[in-house]
Amino acid sequence: MYRALYRKWRPLTFDDVTGQPHVTDTLSHEVATGKLSHAYLFTGSRGTGKTTCAKILSKAVNCLSPVNGSPCNECEICKGIDSGAVLDVIEIDAASNNGVDNIRDLREEATFTPVKAKFRVYIIDEVHMLSIGAFNALLKILEEPPSYVVFILATTEVHKLPATILSRCQRFDFHHIPPEDISKRLMYVAKQENLTLSAESAMMIARYADGALRDALSLLDSCSAKTDNITPDIVSSCAGIAGKNHLFKMADFISAKDTSSAINLVSDLHNSSCNMERLCIELMEHFRNLMISKTVNNVENLIIAANEDIEHYKKQSSQFSLEAILNILTVLSNAVNDFKKGIDRKLQAEMLIVRLCTPSLSSDNSSILRRIADLESGIHINRPSVTVSQPIVEKEAETPVKTETQKEKIQTSDSDELTRFKSWPEVLGILKETCKPVSGLLSGSSAYTQGSKLFIKTDNAALVQFLNIPLYSNAIIDAVIKSCGQKYSVSVYNNDTEKKRTDPLENLVKKIDEYKKERE
Q1: pTM of the model
Q2: Quick one: pLDDT at residue 383?
């Protein structure tokens, strides 16, 4: 009878386990030295090796001839555990055996010594499904277990376990398996199964699996049922995902705000059995790569893709402002949650595409920033190098001019004057106590006021990003209020030129007025 690949190629020793060396090295060392715990807790997402390691450990502690802390898989005990003939290793599914009576039966059974093996091992899978009463019943035997009993608890939702259970177990957290490790394992399995699997196809499966090797092997199984020559197109077809060409096309349509073409593409993908939720996730990954391409120099270290795809990412990222990419990622992230609640996924995908192509439909901050960036780009205005507004100065004066009132001012072309904020040292002192991260950024800075605005002058470019975070901008505003009793809006002072600067919105108004005059 045919066995699924994830069952056929389940690791038999700790050395065979993929991507969890922090777990397997510790467990094998404990077995080799005999320093075993009476209760283990394995946590982590699905398909990362929790049950596999539990079974290996159950054999290792009972093996007649262990090898470096791993079971030999040749002795009668190892073979008996694998076949189910040795009844001293018991697997319990807590999802269907979650009552008090089930745990009471377990407690009564645990009082008997092992029949063949050295230890009676209880593997309780999905342990978070136990009822409160069942947890209380389990707690007693976890506190004072017989010397020949070992408990191995496995769960994907460790936060649901009572603290009393957690404190009595040796905990191991299973991480998402890196795509490189999954890909390597897939190539090995494919070779053993006489399958032709390209490196690109293996990496595509690995990325789709999202850190779960079992999911990756299941997808490889589906692909092998279709053909022995597994290509990226076969993977896309079996997984129900959009290929990269479709993603690049969709991004082009979104950039051009071509709603009609984008919706037609969604329809084509849906008719080709593309999973709409998966399409949304793939688009998130695509725009994440565009964000990396736009902001990072060593793109190759952060994007796993062929060289031609990386060049394509770099080229396409120039079509979007950073504000647009961040807004699109925000919309996509929210849409992933909506897909889990909705019924008509094609309709949800179409609504999503309309929102992505028409940012004016949204009124959140990321959408507004995107619209402003698009507006500035459309009328060919040099964008300011700060995130908020900037003072309108005629000429920067490194040594401010003193007036008759001895106030240090810089004359401006605006009705208000840019005035040095003398309470700034006091503000910095307050921030040292209330917000040390911002205090460090503002070291050596100065400040000016212009009407109800306060402009911070600093050489530290990181301040721009910090002011976009309400926690830090509010800390500055609160410190200013404490120092002078007045509330200002906070911005970064831009002093990279001595030429007169005008506000982009003023330019916009002027261009609109000129356009009206031409029409008249």
Answers
A1: 0.58
A2: 38
